[in-house]
Design a protein that fits this description.
Strand content: under 5%
Shape: rod-shaped
Number of helices: 4
Helix content: over 70%
Radius of gyration: 32 Å
Number of domains: 1
Largest sheet: none
Length: about 90
């Protein structure tokens, strides 16, 4: 009690300040936890989006090759088909 009296505050004020400090620390911990969770979800979404775009592009190119009634490899082997391949890439990139 003497320590509190020398600071000029009663025990009630000291306990309130202590409770507020603990409450502030708890808010920081919750905030940091939520922020880390959101960052983890964002990183996961970016990882899945990249693989999804690659898969969709490959699927689109295969569909374009099927529409031309040739295999995807034929686009590379036949120079006449390379223009169709460029058109397919342009269409699939949109």
């Amino acid at each position: 009690m003497d320590k509190l009296a020398t600071r000029g505050m009663c025990a009630c004020e000291a306990s309130q300040r202590s409770a507020l400090a603990v409450e502030g620390i708890r808010h920081w911990v919750v905030g940091i936890t939520i922020t880390l969770g959101v960052l983890a979800l964002f990183a996961t979404a970016v990882g899945f989006a990249t693989s999804s775009v690659r898969a969709n592009t490959t699927l689109c190119l295969k569909q374009a090759a099927n529409d031309e009634h040739v295999s995807l490899e034929a686009f590379f082997q036949n120079p006449a088909e390379q223009d169709a391949f460029v058109a397919a890439i342009t269409a699939c990139s949109r």
